[in-house]
Structure formats: C-alpha cells, structure tokens
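Archive record:
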Amino acid sequence: MLTTPLIETTKFAILASDAQVERTVKALEINNIHVIVTENGAEAKKRLFEIIPADAEIFTSSSVTLNALGITEEIDESGHYNSVRAKIALMDRKTQNREMQKLGSTPEYMIGSVHAVTETGHVIIASKTGSQLAGYAASAANLIWVVGTQKIVSTLEDGMERIEEYTLPLENARALNAYGVESSIDKLLIVKKEFALGRTTMILVKENLGF
C-alpha cells in the first residue's frame, strides 16, 4: 500500500504569525474577500455552518481540509443540505457527464480550500483537472474557502514555490493512494480581487490543516 512520504517541517508547514494574519486579512478585505479568523478547526466548522442557510444547495470541492474537519461528511451525508456531490454520485457519467459538470460548476454555495494566500491579498489554487476552478472563479453564486494559516506566504512567487515544493508531493501521494494515478499542476487560478462584493468568504484557521 502506498503511503504519504515523510516531508520534514519547512516554512510552508509553519502557522503564520498574528502579524502576518493581520496583514493578510486587511489585504483580502480590500480585495473584496471577506475574512473570518478562527482559533481552531472546531471554531471554523461552527462559523461555516452559521453562514450556510438550511437546505442550501452546496457543492463540496475535493479538499483534505474539509475532510479533516468533517465538513464534507456533514454536507454530503447528513441530509440537512441539498448536496450537489450526493446528487452527482447517483448519475451516470457515461450518459450524464455534461449535466454533472454543470451541476458541479454552478451551485448556490461552493465550499473548498486553496493552496496559498499571499500577504498582499492574492489567492492561488492549483489543479490537475481544473474541475473546481470555474466555480471558484465566478460560476458558484457563493464561495467559502476554509484555509489553515500555514498557507499564508509573502508573495505570489512564494506561493508558487509552496505549491511546487510542498503541496504537490503531498497531493501526489494522496492521489496515488486514492486513485492510483499521480497528480500534477496542470491548471492554476490566481484570484487577485473578487468582483462581486459579498460573494467570497475565507475562513482562516490558526491550525495546520490540509496542504
């Protein structure tokens, strides 16, 4: 059985300082991304479910962070929400693939995470298939990201280094374990500013979550 490689602690796995978090929050807010800062995963989960209306249509993007906090399970399996992922699981990819793509791209709420956030208020998401990027960029009506503060970096260049040198090896091991295929950085989304005021919220968590 394949296992996740041991990667020594680097700057990319260390939680940001309070000063770094404060600078990042100010920059994100200027860029129309509302930020909620939480002390731990339990508080982050609580705040998330305070935001989402009962019975809301929600698509959970594939995320180690969401899985670790039990958010994916709560949304997709509890029956308390209109889970797009649960609906897609019942469809036939051979005959309904286009419909499945549309459902996953245009939900009322999309919840996921990101791979790097800069102190200047930019957000970077890497993907192999790009399946989550349309919803993140514009097509989901509301977007919520849950992000551990170890993902905060100084610049876009640092963010790319984080993704290539730290995130990819861990995601590659996860993909091999889960799917039997390697991961790769084939598509990138860089969000410099949110156009629609009130659309995007980032819940920053002072806990090392995801990678």
User: Anything to note?
Assistant: Strands lie at 33-38, 57-60, 82-83, 109-112, 116-118, 123-127, 142-148, 152-153, 187-191, 200-205. The first helix runs from residue 18 to 30.
